[in-house]
Write a structure and sequence with these properties.
With 492 residues, this protein is of the alpha+beta class. The chain contains 10 helices and 14 strands. The longest helix is centred in the middle third of the chain and has 68 residues. It starts with a helix and ends with a helix.
Length: 492
Amino acid sequence: MAKCRLLIALLAPLALGAAAVSPSDIPSEGSVMNLEQCRQLALANNKDLRRSAQQIKVAGYEKDQAFAAYLPSLDFAGGYMYNQKGISVLESDQLLPIKSFNPETKGYEFDFVKNPIDGKPVMVDGKPIPSQVAYLPKEALSYDLHNVFFGAVTLTQPIFMGGKIVAMNKITGYAEQLATAMHDNSAQDVIYAVDAAYWQVVSLKAKQKLAVSYVNLLDTLSHNVSLMVKEGVATKRDQLTVDVKLNSAQIDLTKVDNGLVLSRMALAQVCGLPVHTVFTLADEDAETISTTAPVAKSYDMQQVYASRDDLRAIELGVKIYKEKEAVARASMMPNLALVGAYSFSNPNMFDGFQKKFNGMFSVGAMLTIPIWHWGSNYNKLRAAKAQTVAANLQLDNAREMVDLQVNQASFKADEAFKTFSMTESNLAKADENLRCAQLGFRDGVMTVDNVMEAQTAWLKAHSENIDARIDVYLCDVYLNKVLGRLDVQAAQ
């Protein structure tokens, strides 16, 4: 499943409160908390879950952003430019020849200066001299463009983008679902971690009581042996043997005490509380840990596939890659958009050259048709298809790993239940064995070694029973986790 988690992390591909732990959320000293309350605290305070909740928001915003591509976009662009020089169309003042109406030809003709002798036009430098001219000064066609202001408001409505917009909307929708699935998968991990820490504390508290009882048994035995030594019915060796065993039991009790303190710190940390927070668990002071939790044995693998959030995330990743194929294919198709604009400038030349703002509307369509890109777009599509195939192979491999994981968890849960049943039957035998050893020692038919062996067997039986009970709970939670049956919503 490591590859599964890696792919999920690469693809990411239900919002909780993002506030930090407030003082009111910290249990007061002596308060009692059950497993469900610990789960809720952990889900509310876990920083990874709060971060993934923000990722869900990000995916939602990106989904809204992709939907906006269906709608027309309105943009404004403007600017100012300073030019060092103005513009003049003429190099200098100009004299323009004028045509006159000729009644004989009934048309306009140039009137040239004629020689009075022969009546022919007077030529200067090979050109006739017009008799009338119009004076056009240079300033008439000179324009002041030192300060130019311009701008445009543009409206663009996509009509056909080759399916790119539809594909992007599907991708962002899948990405939002993927972020939610990843969040729920992380929440299940947190719940399992809380359960493991919770039952570890309960287990160590039960073992602490067991260790205290064992120390008391050895202390009582040590006292009885000391009296027997004084009476001469026991040896000094017997006394030393019991005392060594008592010292060893006291050391074990110290280790259990320290382990219990550290386990409480670990539980507080998983719940998002300060590690030195002191609170009591609802199950730790019970005379016996409650009977076995129900073990989920029946399951259908198709339902498991549909319930597993990590598999769902990978499936969504496959769908995302499939839509990326559509995006790549869109780059090979024509794009059509409707464009409308209002452009303006100062100065403008709509009614002659005027130093004021004026503009006009324009409407048109823009068509882009890819023709030849040396196979770039086609190779992009082929790469997207290869990614989809790779993602499908990864999904198949993940399902095989889930099959193995479910079967292992099922066998482990069944084994834990059978082990618990055997330890239950061993308890009565160990208690009876210890009672018989104590009676035999009192009657003088059993030695100190026999009593200590019975006590050790009694300690082992009870310790194994505690471990087996806790293992049943944890195996059942883990089996429900791999089956996708942990109800994250209910815990939140």
